[in-house]
Specification:
heterodimer, A: alpha/beta, Peroxisomal Thiolase, Chain A, domain 1, 2 domains, twelve-stranded mixed sheet, 15 strands, 20% strand, B: alpha/beta, ten-stranded mixed sheet, two-stranded antiparallel sheet, 12 helices, 14 strands, 31% helix, 19% strand, globular
């Protein structure tokens, strides 16, 4: 019994999840669209992208959130705060959270992002450049710090545990979960609200367009021989993470087990992937070993590939290194064919897709890929009938940061 | 197996010294590193002085081909990293670098390099219009906060946990804490950690309009204090498990004995006046070190010089150390300025200096005692002291608090 408790203290479960995605608010909207293979990529309308090589994006439909943000006094908050807070509400509701669920001193908020509240920084630079520093708006400046969103969450719900805001290139979701796992397993926290958010703005779209990483053909086609760059996506996603022991103790019903995590860096060169996907291979290996799951037992992979030459090739190399022959047979899809590259938000979309998969939902369909360059078992239509015992979610930043999470049904 | 975490090398760039020895001399001498800002045009800013790096020639550290492609933040952290690694004597080539990681605290990272990109938003845009050789285009990928850790990982081939902590002004101390956790948990035997923040117009403007910047001097804990002054700095610490450090015969500078964090959950920019949030972080750091307040010989305060911080920090110290505590407390910000996300780690280097060199760094410009700030703040001049353990604080926007205990190493 003692050993069983000890093991339950080390096992991590997800008891709630929430998302705001290019499909609007809610995990069902996201997972439903992915299983149908419905694309969120559209011509950009809310800023002028006409001079760009790439004129498409996958934006959060802001108008669809009006009721939600209005009823929560969120209308004037930066979009990053709006989306993350709505995702947190959804996750908490699913986790059965009430006013006395946790001791607030033992709840932490850990968030990851690549660009933070980029539109706010953009607005402040605009003031500095076009007028004078003394006309910078103080209420906006406080939103430029990376931890502004995490702080807003802690203030709203009164959580007083350690609060982290991190960044690890444009894919830091599993770095967030790794720190959360550490805090829970060491007994410093009873629950961690862990999430990511990233946004598209005029400046970020133009920057990415300028350095030539976006698709000139305006198509996101991961793994396709004709892939020519990514389409930018955005959103936020949050999970409630607890040890199995504390979830059981409060009578919560876990959605899935976070059975293994891995993070690594290519350590290869700034802004380029290791050609063999060394970082991702290391992260996948760590996640599988931690979960004691063999490559053959993985029934679905939510891939990181985003329709760029180097990331997709490096990910396939990593898959072959770690999975061997199974690399060609395990059902796999990259959500970015549908949602675009939502940067750190994509990491958590991948995690949610894996949670959905082990809970019997339809697998995300691989869209955009007509001429696959690699021998992979891409999910071509929803395969709800096939049971998924274990699923692997990937992340891979162009800075060389990689992550993997093994999700298992309980 | 020992899971004690030790520091074996520290590289620093600060306004009062461009390596640990110079920094130590500056602290002992009570050097004021604040000066008029020359790094950018500050003539339109409400506050025009800051702690700027001096006598640093980056062209001596990087090739002419590489230099234009590196943001100021990257230049700073790479110079500090080279220093810290050299000081530690660590031979990375002999390490399993798949398990060596890097965690850095930063508020801005490479972001100041994005200014020209933002300026270009105000012109009609067509891809490639200004040509691919424009330096700011080359800097796009380096103009993010996470570029700081990516650059160090890439430079040294580090393949372990790599990230930046960005919790405003507590980030640097959290970075040391996360790296310490990675070693304590056995995830890594060696970690590089620290902080970096370059001066930038954005915080100079933002803290200016928040009326957080001093009208004249930064006067921590003084009755006439009226704000902080910004600064820039970088530091890179080589952290190792005790077993790893002793196995290779490294010189150990200090032990990272305990770390704690907390959140006020109170207000975005105003700290909770009771001081309970920072007190919980200090208590957690002591608990994690297995130590009692009376074992701490010195507190390296956050001490920003704003009216609110200094009185609240004083209250917080009293919550943990008692109303009548005699523990000496000082803020080095009057010497180096407030380097935001870097400050937690870089100022903690002063705590290690104090342990090893046997003196308390002074609080400059504390000219008028404040009845609400009635601790021993080591005013004006450094003071000899034999220390066994010290505590460092760092608090940030959003009520984000961190504290760390450093213990003298008897080897």
């Amino acid at each position: 019994m003692h050993h069983e408790n000890e093991a339950a203290n080390m096992r991590l479960v997800i008891t709630g999840m929430g998302a705001v995605s290019p499909y609007g608010a809610g995990v069902p909207a996201l997972l439903g669209a992915l299983a149908e293979g419905r694309s969120a990529i559209r011509p950009i309308e809310d800023f002028d992208a006409s001079g760009c090589g790439c004129t498409h994006g996958a934006r959060v439909p802001q108008a669809s959130l009006a009721t939600l943000t209005g009823s929560n006094n969120l209308r004037r908050a930066p979009r990053g705060t709006q989306y993350t807070m709505l995702a947190t509400e959804e996750a908490l509701q699913m986790a059965g959270h009430g006013p006395s669920t946790w001791n607030p001193e033992r709840v932490g908020v850990f968030l990851g992002t690549y660009r933070a509240n980029a539109e706010v920084s953009q607005e402040i630079w605009h003031r500095i450049i076009t007028s004078e520093p003394r006309f910078v708006q103080p209420l906006l400046f406080q939103e430029t710090v990376t931890n502004a969103v995490a702080s807003a969450l802690s203030i709203r719900w009164g959580w007083r545990g350690t609060n982290y805001a991190i960044s690890a290139g444009n894919a830091c979701g599993f770095q967030v979960l790794t720190l959360a796992a550490q805090a829970l397993r060491s007994g410093r926290a009873d629950a961690i609200i862990a999430g990511t958010f990233d946004l598209v703005t005029a400046a970020t779209h133009r920057d990415m367009d300028d350095i030539g990483v976006l698709s000139d053909s305006n198509v996101s086609r991961p793994f396709d021989a004709r892939r020519d760059g990514f389409i930018m996506g955005e959103g936020a996603s949050v999970v409630v993470l607890e040890t199995l022991a504390s979830a059981r103790a409060r009578g919560a019903t876990p959605l899935a087990e976070l059975a293994g995590l891995g993070v690594a860096h290519d350590g290869h060169g700034f802004g380029i992937h290791h050609p063999e996907g060394r970082g991702l291979a290391s992260a996948m290996g760590q996640a599988l070993r931690a979960a004691a799951v063999s490559p053959e037992a993985v029934d679905y992979i939510a891939a990181a590939s985003n329709s760029t030459q180097s990331l997709d090739r490096a990910e396939v190399a990593a898959l072959r290194t770690v999975l061997g022959a199974a690399a060609g047979t395990v059902p796999l899809s990259s959500l970015k064919g549908l949602t675009g590259e939502a940067e750190s938000a994509s990491d958590m979309f991948n995690l949610l897709a894996c949670i959905g998969a082990v809970r019997g939902g339809g697998l995300p369909v691989q869209a955009g890929t007509e001429q696959p360059e690699f021998e992979l078992n891409l999910v071509r239509q929803s395969q709800a009938s096939r049971p998924v015992r274990a699923a692997l979610a990937h992340s891979y930043s162009f800075g060389g940061n990689a992550g993997a999470a093994l999700v298992r049904a309980l | 197996m020992s899971n004690r975490v030790v520091v074996t090398g520290i590289g620093v760039l600060t306004p009062i010294g461009n390596n640990l020895a110079e920094f130590s001399e500056g602290l002992r001498a009570g050097r004021d590193g604040i000066a008029p800002v020359t790094h950018f045009d500050a003539s339109k800013h409400r506050c025009q002085s800051a702690g700027q790096l001096k006598n640093i020639d980056f062209s001596a550290h990087f090739s002419p081909e590489e230099l234009p492609y590196l943001s100021r933040g990257t230049r700073m952290i790479r110079v500090a990293a080279a220093q810290g690694l050299a000081a530690s004597g660590l031979d990375l080539a002999a390490e399993d670098r798949s398990r060596v990681g890097v965690v850095l605290g930063t508020n801005l990272g490479g972001m100041p390099a994005a200014k020209e990109g933002y300026a270009a938003l105000h012109h009609p845009y067509r891809r490639g219009r200004a040509g691919p050789k424009e330096p700011w285009r080359a800097l796009v990928l380096d103009s993010f906060i996470s570029a700081m850790s990516d650059q160090v990982a890439s430079q040294y081939g580090l393949a372990g946990l790599s990230l930046v902590m960005s919790t405003a002004c507590s980030a640097g101390l959290h970075a040391l804490g996360v790296a310490m956790d990675a070693i304590r948990s056995g995830q890594a035997e060696v970690m590089l950690a620290g902080g970096v923040d370059p001066l930038s117009e954005m915080p100079q403007a933002g803290f200016g309009v928040l009326r957080s910047l001093a009208s004249d001097k930064l006067r921590p804990f003084s009755k006439d204090r009226d704000g902080t002054l910004l600064g820039e700095s970088a530091s890179l610490w080589v952290l190792e498990s005790e077993a790893h450090a002793t196995r290779r015969g490294a010189r150990i500078l200090a032990e990272l004995a305990g770390y704690g964090g907390s959140t006020d959950a109170y207000h975005m920019t105003r700290p909770d006046e009771t001081g309970r949030g920072p007190a919980r972080a200090m208590q957690a750091a002591l608990d994690s070190a297995g130590m009692k307040p009376e074992q701490i010989g010195y507190i390296k305060a956050h001490g920003t010089g704003t009216p609110a911080n200094d009185v609240i920090e004083t209250r917080a110290i009293k919550h943990v150390f008692g109303e009548r505590t005699q523990v000496p407390v000082s803020s080095i910000k009057a010497m180096v300025g407030h380097s935001l996300g870097s400050s937690g780690a870089t100022e903690a280097a002063a705590a290690v200096v104090a342990l090893n060199e046997g003196f308390l760094p002074p609080t400059l410009h504390l000219d008028t005692p404040d009845p609400e700030c009635d601790l021993d703040y080591v005013p004006h001049r450094s003071r000899p002291a034999k220390l066994e353990a010290v505590l460092a604080n760092a608090f940030g926007f959003g009520g984000n608090n961190a504290a760390m205990v450093f213990r003298r190493w008897e080897g």
